[in-house]
Design goal:
about 200 residues, 6 helices, about 30% helix, alpha/beta, 7-stranded mixed β-sheet
Length: about 200
């Protein structure tokens, strides 16, 4: 029996998710799913995040280069007024989004799915974290949108970037807001009979 940990594949091109996994002692490979997110729908933002995560994990798990691996799929949306907000399509939408969010609270929903390609089993769930937004001025919003950052992140903000000063606080797992809940990942792996410490890189 090999002493090497199981192969771990992240079905996401998110550098933030990759960074969280690496900081936790894991060494995932990255295989981008190519799922068209606009073609996935669900009744609620939490279910949409989960459906997207499951779709990404399924597509990558079916690929020959993922054979034998544990595949992690994740996707995040911000729930505000019952609506699911993903990445804004352009600067105008990002600006409008921030003006509607300031001084309010939303819920960052991140779907997680782990597929064990060796057994064919999978486990999935959504993690939810409340995010309380500050009240950046119009000038601050304009400067943030001009940086380009909000066009690349769900909800048009991130805790580990230039928008951090505009976030007053969160209730729940901060990693979930960045893109992946490590405590939830540990539980999902456990459902598949895999201990997260078994996956630590040597």
């Amino acid at each position: 029996m090999s002493d090497q940990p199981r192969r771990l594949v992240l079905a996401s091109q998110s550098p933030a998710r990759l960074g969280l996994l690496r900081q936790a002692g894991l060494a995932p490979e990255v295989i981008v799913s190519g799922v068209d997110e606009d073609k996935v729908s669900a009744p609620t933002p939490a279910e949409l995040a989960l459906a997207l995560a499951e779709a990404k994990a399924s597509v990558v798990a079916a690929r020959p280069d993922a054979k034998g691996a544990l595949v992690i799929g994740c996707d995040s949306v911000l729930e505000l007024d019952g609506q699911a907000l993903g990445k804004p399509s352009d600067a105008e939408e990002a600006t409008a989004r921030w003006k509607s969010m300031r001084g309010r609270a939303g819920v960052l929903q991140t779907g997680h799915c782990v597929r064990d390609t060796a057994s064919g089993r999978y486990a999935s769930a959504t993690a939810s974290t409340v995010v309380r937004f500050g009240e950046p001025s119009d000038a601050e919003i304009a400067a943030y949108v001009a940086s380009g950052e909000p066009l690349h992140v769900a909800g048009a903000f991130t805790l580990d970037g230039r928008s951090a000063p505009f976030i007053e606080g969160i209730e729940g797992d901060h990693g979930n807001v960045i893109g992946l809940s490590l405590p939830l990942l540990r539980r999902l792996l456990g459902e598949l009979g895999v201990g997260i410490t078994e996956l630590w890189r040597p």
